[in-house]
Amino acid sequence: MFICCGIETSFDDTCIALLNKNKVLSNIVINYNFQIYKGIVPNIIYLFHIKYIFKIFRISLVNININNIDLISITYGPGLLKSLFIGIILAKFLSLILKIPIYKVNHLHAHILTFFVKGSNIIKNKLIFPFIILLISGGHTLLLIMYDFLKLKILGKTLDNSLGEIYDKIGNLLNFKYPGGYLIDKFSIKGKNIMNIFIPKVKKLNFSFSGIFTKFKNFILNKKYLIKDICITFQKIIFKILLNKVFKALKINNIKNFGIVGGVSNNKYFIQQFKIYSKIYNWNFFYLSKFIKDNAVMIANIGYIKYKKNLNFDLIYIIKPNPKLFINNKVL
Ligand code: KG4
Ligand code: ZN
């Protein structure tokens, strides 16, 4: 047994997970439903983290003795300052009291390496380095190469909004429950394409979604089209943009393996379409069937990976929240 406790409070979920190596022992996620605000309220969320974090820590210990935990793994960024603080305080406290080492974890790095958690995906083949990753979440949109567990290179990023933000803004305009991404995907199933839209020209492997948003905002406000038709038309153009960049990234780097991660990668239409194109181009396409949205399993998993790689533990007194932490090419 080697038990790693992962703690994640970077945004609007309070999450604690226990892993034995890369096998999940417990996974608790509490999400706050901000229906009334149609969005996230940073100055309120941290109060929920305070309210629930100790409760869920106790629940995750139902079948496990606290003294059997070997390692703590904590998200230190990117995210909301106050929210990150709550998780970090619990992590430091546990590390001190239990006299066990601690690793700080980049939330985005954790999303990417979720593929290495046992049972996280249903693809038979193993994901082999190097591979291209498309990270599409509420906070980020990135295209990158993973050379190894701890080595990567950013190829492209969004120049304006993240893809999740755009989905949620469209969702709000359609009066969908927040966050609207899931419902746009669901409604699109029975929709018919309204029109073919040209994909915007964006330099290199970067993305830009603001122009598309304005176009669809007008469609919705016009009230001329059915919601389901708007949804599929939107999904189609977004997919075209993603496919175009992924295609280039794989071709330029002569790589066949590629995966999608982040909340938006839950999108059934994207998965179905990427599967089709993977057959055509002979790509090995990977997507997650579990631990897609924010969770602490992915955080504990990075702790275990760093431990296996013999990385120096982080000094408890030095760890602090880094809200703007971005994956750069050197330090994770
Ligand atoms: O990764 P995530 O859980 O949280 C962040 O770290 O940002 O991503 C949340 C985002 C939201 O914008 C939500 O609308 C979107 O993921 N999302 C989807 C789908 N399911 C969740 N977007 C499109 N299609 C979906 N099926
Ligand atoms: Zn996330």
Automatic annotation (TrEMBL):
Its EC number is 2.3.1.234. The gene is tsaD. It catalyses: L-threonylcarbamoyladenylate + adenosine(37) in tRNA = N(6)-L-threonylcarbamoyladenosine(37) in tRNA + AMP + H(+). Keywords: Acyltransferase, Iron, Membrane, Metal-binding, Transferase, Transmembrane, Transmembrane helix, tRNA processing. InterPro entries: ATPase_NBD, Gcp-like_dom, KAE1/TsaD. The keyword tRNA-binding does not apply. SUPFAM superfamilies: Actin-like ATPase domain. One of its GO terms (molecular function) is tRNA N(6)-L-threonylcarbamoyladenine synthase activity. This is N(6)-L-threonylcarbamoyladenine synthase. It comes from the Bacteria. GO terms for biological process: tRNA processing. Residues 23-300 form the Gcp-like domain. PANTHER family: TRNA N6-ADENOSINE THREONYLCARBAMOYLTRANSFERASE (PTHR11735), TRNA N6-ADENOSINE THREONYLCARBAMOYLTRANSFERASE, MITOCHONDRIAL (PTHR11735:SF6). It is an enzyme of class 2 (transferase). The chain crosses the membrane at residues 84-103, 127-147.
